């Protein structure tokens, strides 16, 4: 088990290293000079030169890369050109919103996707199954921001039940009740992903139901509900668990849009704004953190999968 | 494999919803081709007196903040939707399929290429597309390229999986030992068996391209603002949602129906497919 | 004890309906083994699933006939309802021990699950019973093996676990559907003698399904030969082997390799078994039969008997007994 974890961690680190090169090269391919973004067009050549040296942008790209990596390893992601603050601080400010949003969304996905998928599978072939599968496919076909905008119109603008945008920290005034700011965004974000998990749960339940060991379970005389939960669902969830890795990746992409729609002060909106502002250090830092998170989550999913499925060798 | 179209129609006859999807797609293609005949107003025609007017007999879907006819713009938008879909699918297939097949045939090269695909997949798709747009500049062609590169990875993965499976199968091995050339094996054994999985993948990629392009438009980094794409229409009308909610309704509905139809068609095709390959085509590439 | 009368199992609906099993009758008594023999596709596995009450609805269903156990009608009654209604138990072991056990549940738990339903015991009592059952099917280190997962056991051991699960259900009848075909030859014999022995110790009847007449001659007390969804011949094992009436039975026997004959190539029956619904008139074996005449393709053969227990359905039986 330990060997397996080490091997997988090694592979993840290699991917991370490759990804850091890709990020760095990408960022430097972006046309437009951040110095001019910062100083405006009327800056004198001396001012430009001075700032260029101060930010280290006058050195060769390879030197800049290793300089950056060295700093990253010491926990320094650089300084935002726009905010003039350390990137780590800026990311930390957005982290609360994004992490809470992701968690609440994951809860919705699991609470809606899995049970409804089970319902559809156990009613296979009936109109309930067809209806639920159809709705799931429809939800997976709706642009998240469109849903978000109409949810704002209905629940915030017209009914006035929920706030339309923004998110004050739960550590500020209002405390946990501030989570209501995340209700609409999390539902918006959960809809397409819950739909995918629903379809996956349903499909793998139907696959497992054809297995010989399900027939064995029935032949034992145990009740149908127990056959479904203990034998079919237990095995079908293996496929669902392994899907959480890419669900998380999909979540990040859609969080970028959702945070923009609901004006949430999270990392997703930060990255879009930084791209528009050509704020290299922030883009680099945020994407590196996101890739890192993605790899960690995939690693955890892999390890827990090995734990859930005794067939896989734990050498 | 499908030599004639008959099994194709038999399939859709038993799936009424997928049939509706197919019909809708045909309607969209007709609308895109005949846009200039179908509409009463040019999509750019500005009528300042008629700003934000609700749907009426003159303006079926109402007018936007410049007084432009939403119906005309929606119809013209279908051209762009198809262009983006066809472009992304062609790009993803033209690059992903060779990468996948070569990786399966030459395991050493395959290890390197699939590692690279893994690295690319570690980047959330929308962020990657955003990054590419910023580097390449904002245009319709670059939007297609950026989304196409995202789906290159999933297409390469699926092609790799399917061709690896085919390669292992005895008949290809037999052909291999008889000294057949690699090219011959690809053409004779791998490609014909690949048509059906790729058709399914193509319909899903087409659907996700619609959603991806709409997201890019919405963030202001997709098609240039003057282009009447459905995503741009939503982005522009966003601030008028309380005053003129219908402005966002129709373009959004078009995106939903297009993606939904493509997903339905892809799903129906997948269910008919060879079960060996079905598991590789999860509805997962967003 | 178990009586199957004129069982008809059908698939499909309306015009596309076909009978996969037609007019099958047999009886199983305590401490006796009935061999049900036929090629694949003859309907023998479907018959056993029907007896179990485990036909995959709605694709297959019992269209006619009855299945009775100790006088109670258990037709189309799934196992859990048989438990609820206090009807006697029928257990089953399957052809593939590799896929018949849940891969992610320890075997002990899989046995305990059955013990809990049929004994009503829980906790340590149920666990001890599971261990006892594992010992009965001769699994070494039974206590330790309770926590083993199926993939950690060999094929023969898994089939023993399957038997333990079946016994946990306290069955009156055990159905064994080709339980040894997937196993090594040496293991096959062990499992067969285990089944024979348990048949006596548990005072149960066994329905043994196979395509191998050789296995049947070792194990069974009586034999029913199935072809194209029908029973074409049945009788006590010696009688049927010595005086086969139906050409199909005789053909199957020529397929049995005879070690005393050295390397003699054994004959096979030419052609293939009919698909369900392919032949509706006359004798279903006629197209492959060497003795077939015109009447065989038009008229359903009558019953020919050889003594009170041995009979066959054939126009031209090989050894004609007293009619």
From TrEMBL, chain A:
It is a multi-pass membrane protein. The keyword RNA-binding does not apply. The chain crosses the membrane at residues 12-30, 99-122, 134-161, 181-200, 232-252, 282-301. PROSITE patterns: ABC_TM1. InterPro entries: BPD_transp_1_N, MetI-like, MetI-like_sf. Keywords: Cell membrane, Membrane, Transmembrane, Transmembrane helix, Transport. GO terms for biological process: transmembrane transport. Belongs to the binding-protein-dependent transport system permease family. This is Peptide/nickel transport system permease protein.
Automatic annotation (TrEMBL), chain B:
Keywords: Cell membrane, Membrane, Transmembrane, Transmembrane helix, Transport. It is a multi-pass membrane protein. The chain crosses the membrane at residues 21-41, 80-105, 126-150, 198-224, 244-266. CDD domains: TM_PBP2. It comes from the Bacteria. SUPFAM superfamilies: MetI-like (SSF161098). Residues 78-266 form the ABC transmembrane type-1 domain. This is Peptide/nickel transport system permease protein. It comes from Aliiruegeria lutimaris. The lineage of its organism: Bacteria, Pseudomonadati, Pseudomonadota, Alphaproteobacteria, Rhodobacterales.
Automatic annotation (TrEMBL), chain C:
SUPFAM superfamilies: P-loop containing nucleoside triphosphate hydrolases (SSF52540). GO terms for cellular component: plasma membrane. One of its GO terms (molecular function) is ATP hydrolysis activity. Gene3D superfamilies: P-loop containing nucleotide triphosphate hydrolases. Pfam families: ABC_tran (PF00005), oligo_HPY (PF08352). One of its GO terms (biological process) is transmembrane transport. InterPro entries: AAA+_ATPase (IPR003593), ABC_Ni/Peptide_Import (IPR050388), ABC_transporter-like_ATP-bd (IPR003439), ABC_transporter-like_CS (IPR017871), Oligopep_ABC_C (IPR013563), P-loop_NTPase (IPR027417). Keywords: ATP-binding, Cell membrane, Membrane, Nucleotide-binding, Transport. The keyword Cell membrane applies. It comes from the Bacteria. It is found in: Cell inner membrane. The keyword ATP-binding applies. Residues 2-253 form the ABC transporter domain. It is a peripheral membrane protein. Belongs to the ABC transporter superfamily. This is Peptide/nickel transport system ATP-binding protein.
């Amino acid at each position: 088990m330990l060997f397996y974890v080490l091997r997988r961690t090694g592979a993840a680190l290699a991917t991370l290293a490759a990804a850091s090169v890709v990020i760095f090269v990408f960022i430097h391919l972006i046309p437009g000079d951040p110095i001019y973004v910062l100083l405006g067009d009327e800056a004198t050549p001396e001012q430009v030169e001075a700032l260029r040296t101060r930010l280290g942008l006058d050195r060769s790209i390879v030197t800049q890369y290793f300089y950056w990596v060295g700093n990253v390893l010491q926990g320094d992601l650089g300084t935002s050109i726009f905010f003039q603050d350390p990137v780590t601080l800026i990311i930390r400010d957005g982290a609360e919103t994004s992490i809470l949003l992701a968690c609440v969304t994951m809860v919705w996905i699991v609470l809606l996707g899995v049970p409804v998928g089970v319902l559809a599978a156990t009613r296979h072939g009936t109109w309930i199954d067809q209806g639920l599968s159809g709705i799931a496919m429809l939800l997976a076909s709706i642009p998240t921001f469109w849903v978000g905008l109409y949810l704002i119109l209905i629940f915030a603008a017209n009914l006035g039940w929920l706030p339309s945008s923004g998110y004050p920290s739960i550590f500020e005034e209002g405390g946990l009740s501030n989570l209501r700011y995340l209700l609409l965004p999390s539902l918006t974000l959960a809809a397409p992903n819950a739909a995918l998990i629903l379809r996956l749960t349903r499909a793998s339940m139907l696959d497992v139901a054809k297995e010989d060991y399900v027939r064995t379970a029935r032949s034992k005389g145990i009740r149908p509900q127990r056959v479904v939960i203990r034998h079919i669902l237990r095995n079908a969830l293996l496929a669902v668990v392994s899907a959480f890795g890419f669900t998380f990746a999909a979540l990040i992409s859609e969080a970028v849009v959702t945070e923009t729609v609901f004006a949430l002060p999270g990392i997703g909106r930060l990255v879009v704004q930084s791209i528009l502002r050509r704020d290299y250090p922030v883009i680099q830092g945020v994407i590196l953190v996101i890739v890192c998170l993605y790899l960690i989550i995939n690693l955890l999913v892999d390890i827990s999968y090995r734990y859930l499925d005794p067939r896989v060798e734990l050498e | 494999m499908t030599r004639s179209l008959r099994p194709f129609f038999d399939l859709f006859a038993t799936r009424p919803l997928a049939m509706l999807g197919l019909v809708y797609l045909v309607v969209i293609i007709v609308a895109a081709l005949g846009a200039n005949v179908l509409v009463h107003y040019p999509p750019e025609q500005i009528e300042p007196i008629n700003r934000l007017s609700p749907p009426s007999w003159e303006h079926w879907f109402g007018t936007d903040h410049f007084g432009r006819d939403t119906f005309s713009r929606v119809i013209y938008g279908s051209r762009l939707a198809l262009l983006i879909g066809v472009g992304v699918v062609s790009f993803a297939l033209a690059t992903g399929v060779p990468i996948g097949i070569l990786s399966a045939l030459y395991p050493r090269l395959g290890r390197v290429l699939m590692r690279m695909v893994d690295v690319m997949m570690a980047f959330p798709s929308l962020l990657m597309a955003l990054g590419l747009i910023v580097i390449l500049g904002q245009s319709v062609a670059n939007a297609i390229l950026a989304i196409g590169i995202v789906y290159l990875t999933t297409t390469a993965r699926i092609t790799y999986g399917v061709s690896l499976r085919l390669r292992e199968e005895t008949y290809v091995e037999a052909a291999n030992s008889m000294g057949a050339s690699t090219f011959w094996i690809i053409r004779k054994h791998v490609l014909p068996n690949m048509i059906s999985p790729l058709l399914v993948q193509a319909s899903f990629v087409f659907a996700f391209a619609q959603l991806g392009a709409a997201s890019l438009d919405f963030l202001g980094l997709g098609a240039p603002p003057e282009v009447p794409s459905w995503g741009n229409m939503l982005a522009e009308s966003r601030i008028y949602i309380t005053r003129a909610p219908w402005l966002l309704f129709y373009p959004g509905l078009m995106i939903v129906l297009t993606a939904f139809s493509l997903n339905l068609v892809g799903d129906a095709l997948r269910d008919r497919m060879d079960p060996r390959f079905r598991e590789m085509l999860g509805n997962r590439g967003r | 004890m178990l009586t199957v009368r004129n069982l008809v199992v059908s698939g499909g609906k309306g015009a596309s309906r076909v009978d996969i099993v037609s007019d099958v009758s047999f009886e199983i008594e305590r401490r006796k083994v009935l061999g049900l023999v036929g090629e694949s596709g003859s309907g023998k596995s479907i018959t056993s699933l029907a007896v179990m009450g485990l036909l995959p609805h709605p694709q297959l269903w019992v269209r006619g006939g009855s299945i009775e156990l100790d006088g109670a009608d258990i037709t189309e009654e799934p196992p859990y309802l048989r438990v609820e209604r206090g009807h006697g138990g029928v257990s089953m072991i399957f052809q593939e021990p590799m896929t018949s056990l849940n891969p992610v549940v320890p075997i002990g738990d899989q046995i305990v699950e059955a013990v809990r339903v049929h004994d009503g015991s829980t906790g340590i009592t149920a666990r001890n019973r599971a261990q006892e059952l594992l010992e009965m099917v001769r699994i070494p280190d039974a206590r330790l093996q309770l926590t083993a997962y199926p993939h950690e056991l060999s094929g023969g051991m898994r089939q023993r676990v399957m038997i333990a699960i079946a016994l946990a259900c306290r069955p009156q009848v055990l159905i064994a559907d080709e339980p040894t075909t997937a196993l090594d030859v040496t293991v096959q014999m062990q499992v067969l003698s285990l089944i024979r022995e348990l048949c006596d110790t548990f005072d149960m009847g066994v329905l043994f399904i196979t395509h191998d007449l050789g296995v049947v001659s070792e194990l069974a007390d009586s034999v029913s030969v199935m072809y194209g969804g029908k029973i074409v011949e049945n009788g006590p094992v010696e009688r049927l082997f010595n005086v086969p009436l139906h050409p199909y039975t005789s053909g199957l026997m020529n397929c049995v390799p005879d070690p005393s004959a050295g390397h003699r190539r054994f004959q096979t029956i030419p052609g293939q078994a009919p698909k369900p619904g392919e032949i509706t008139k006359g004798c279903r074996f006629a197209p492959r039969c060497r003795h077939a005449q015109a009447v065989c393709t038009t008229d359903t053969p009558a019953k020919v008997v050889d003594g009170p227990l041995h009979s066959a359905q054939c126009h031209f039986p090989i050894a004609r007994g007293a009619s």
